[in-house]
Structures are given as C-alpha cells and as structure tokens.
Design brief:
about 20% helix; five-stranded mixed sheet; two-stranded antiparallel ribbon; tRNA_endonuc-like_dom_sf; PD(D/E)XK endonuclease domain-containing protein; Trna Endonuclease, Chain: A, domain 1; nucleic acid binding; alpha+beta
C-alpha cells in the first residue's frame, strides 16, 4: 500500500443522487398508498413532487429533504412554504429500512421553536431527525380532506 492511498479520503456521495433517491422513495410510498404522483426534475426547483389523492380530490405539493445518514437536514425556516408538505427521508445504509418524517409546511412555518434553534440559524440552518420523531411515518397527512 502506498503512502498516497493510505491518506485518501473516502469518496463523497453525490448530493444530487441522494436527493433523487429520496424523491423516488417518497414517490413510491405515495403510489403504494394510491396517490397519483408526478416528479419534477432539475436543479433549483421549488417543488419536488406533485401528489393527488383521488379519494379526497386533494392536491399536494411536496418538498423532499434526504440524507444518507442521521445528520441535519439542511433547511431554512425563512424558505419554508406553509402550503407544501415536507418529507424528510433518512435513507440509511443499503439493507436498512428507510425512515420518513412527514411534516406540514404550516407547522414548520408557524412553530419554528419546535425544531430547535438550528432551524433558524442564519449560517447553517437545519433540522435533526431526533426532533422529527412526532412526524415519523405520518402518511395519514395525505389522506386528510382540505380544510
């Protein structure tokens, strides 16, 4: 083994692949629950998925935040749209179950303190999965009728 290979850093995972994996996992879960789903592709998009529940005639705009391991999801309180549904996806290692945390945008917008001071941090805002446990597997949100 050469000195050069001993000091090589592990290859960083492509963030776009992580994001796309998260979106596809969420789309699959929604399809499994009989919602019609449309993916939007491209960088700098405002919406990741459109979902329609034919049973309730309700349409959803979905933002997906994905991470491969238990770390902060980068999201800024100032950029939250109260009308969206936010799905935080913890992909985990291959062979381990994916974890989902489904949060109404309205809750993120109106209750920032619920998600700790880091959610409103001006330099590196984010939400840790530990504070999302109340929203784990909250798929029933997509079955609610419009208010």
């Amino acid at each position: 083994m050469s000195d050069e290979s001993a000091t090589e850093k592990p290859k960083r995972v492509d963030g776009q692949m992580t994001g796309l994996a998260g979106e596809l996992f969420v789309a699959a879960e929604l399809l499994k629950r009989n919602l019609q789903v449309s993916l939007t592709f491209g960088n700098a998009k405002a919406i990741d998925l459109f979902a329609h529940n034919p049973a309730t005639e309700r349409m959803f705009t979905v933002q997906v935040k994905a991470s491969r391991k238990k770390n902060y999801f980068p999201i800024s309180h100032g950029k939250v749209n109260a009308a969206h549904v936010y799905v935080f996806v913890l992909l985990n290692k291959p062979g381990e179950a994916v974890q989902y945390f489904i949060v109404p945008g309205k809750v993120l917008a109106e209750e920032p303190e619920r998600f700790t001071k880091w959610f409103v941090d001006p330099k590196f805002p984010g939400i840790h999965p530990n504070v999302l446990k109340d929203f784990a597997e909250n798929w029933k949100l997509f079955d609610e009728k419009a208010c």
